[in-house]
Amino acid sequence: MKNVLNPLKVVLTLAVAVLFFLQFRSSKSPAAQASADSKGAQSLKIAYVDLDSIQEKYVYYKEKMTEFDRKKETADRELNSAFQRIENERMTFAQRGEAITQAEAENFQREYTRKMQNLESQKRNLENSIQQDGMKTMDDLRKRINDFLVEYNKTKSYSLIFSTSSSVNVLFHKDSTLDITNDIVAGLNAAYNKSKAN
């Protein structure tokens, strides 16, 4: 699961940073941009959000990860059970010992190989399905955060809102006074709880 989430964190972090940069850059008219440029860096208002904290505290994310883990465990259990059934058949067949004819041995080997190949194919399909579910969940999470931040920023007027995390940290220095993570988590949870209530 970590293998799925780490690349998704990278994509999420970069996508959020680029989206906000483009959103705020393109939302200004040329006249407003010229005015802003003349004011210089003093008018630039920046904040950042810690994605690790969102993962720890955002109820929607935690529920989705629990659901994701449950699906993965169920798939693992089903695959292990199917493998054990095939192995039990092989052991039972082998216990017949010398009573097994050459034709029976060949037929069993073909059937055993076919079942193992089917099981391997089923495993690949389940892994792909779980990975796609994980990507959909991360896309949905990114959209929820983005939508919330657009509304949130209507009153806060930040020029840029960066994201940071322990695995993908593109900021060399973070002034904790610019950290708006707790506000974002509280707002995301309130919006999610409201949507669940409806």
Tell me about this structure.
This protein has helices at 2-26, 30-39, 51-57, 59-94, 102-156, 181-197; strands at residues 46-50, 160-164. The chain is mostly helical and 198 residues long. It has one domain. The protein has a two-stranded parallel ribbon with strand order 1-2. Helix 1 packs parallel to helix 5 (102-156) and helix 4 packs antiparallel against helix 5. The longest helix is centred in the middle third of the chain and has 55 residues, at 102-156. It is elongated. The chain starts with a helix and ends with a helix.
Quickly give the structural class. mainly alpha
Order of helices and strands: HHEHHHEH
What's the count of strands?
Answer: 2
In terms of DSSP E residues, the strand content is 5-15%
How are strands sequenced across the largest beta sheet?
1-2
Low-confidence stretches: 26-32
Shape: elongated
User: What is the distance, rounded to the nearest whole angstrom, between the alpha carbons of the first and last residues?
Assistant: 31 Å
Count of separate DSSP helical elements: 6
Give the integer mean of the pLDDT values. Answer: 82
- Global Rg: 26 Å
Largest sheet: 2 strands, parallel
Helical fraction equals over 70%
Number of domains: 1
